[in-house]
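INFO batch 0412 | record 1 of 1 | parsing
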Amino acid sequence: MSFKTITTIICDVTADMHALNAAVALTRREEAHLDVICLGLDRTQAGFYYAGTNAMILQDNLHLAQKESEDISAKVGELLRAEDISWAARPTTAQMAGLTPQLANILRFSDIVVLPRPYGKDRGHEHEEILEAALFSGRSPVLIMPDNATLPDRIDRVVVAWNESSEALGAVRAALPILSNADNVNITIIDPPQHTPDRSDPGGALCQMLSRHGVHAEVSVLAKTMPNVSDVLCRHVRDQGADMLVMGAYGHSRFRESILGGATRNMLELAELPVFMSH
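INFO prediction complete | emitting tokens
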């Protein structure tokens, strides 16, 4: 089992360079094919303009978005022609209103999507929408690269955030190509519930499943000694010297997490290492 079709989406070559580099490194290691979606966005909000100008403005903005996507594609091509991998740069133009279905139609054929962190400096609403298009509509696992992070040549130490949810289990299954090649996999459980089938052996069933795939895992059961689960997890990841974190995405609704916060949103904002997510 391995990743054979890898996709990344570039909105700005300079700002997203770390995600492109990670996608190239993963493609080379997996002997896979890399698709680079060079995205030019038309952010027109037609309802904001006075009657009679919409068609002209829409056309002008669409031409600007097309040129943007072609410019990004040309820059990506210059960079990737020096690489020893199979790749294709795909200029793509989209309007914000139709971004999710357009991307989902492309991303559903990917084994994994490599994206930059969707929150922080130089990040707009489109980055969050791109992530959600991959996770929810494209049903693809996503590797999130924090700003200026690099993907190690070898991913030896992986922390798996485990809470017995279907999202977490889906992430583990999707990450098996990575977990099976890691030397150390740490299944991390924070404040396990007292009334579950696994209460006497937290993480035991997951360890058994992974062992049958040749993954040697150990379990860490941690107390929630900090206000947020994400804080405890970030500290544990640093203590483990992990190269990657694997976790389920959006166990709660996206609306709830956007307003009240949640482990997914917090990790996307705080993580300093690559985060592998699946929903």
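INFO post-check: The two ends are 20 Å apart (CA to CA).
INFO record closed
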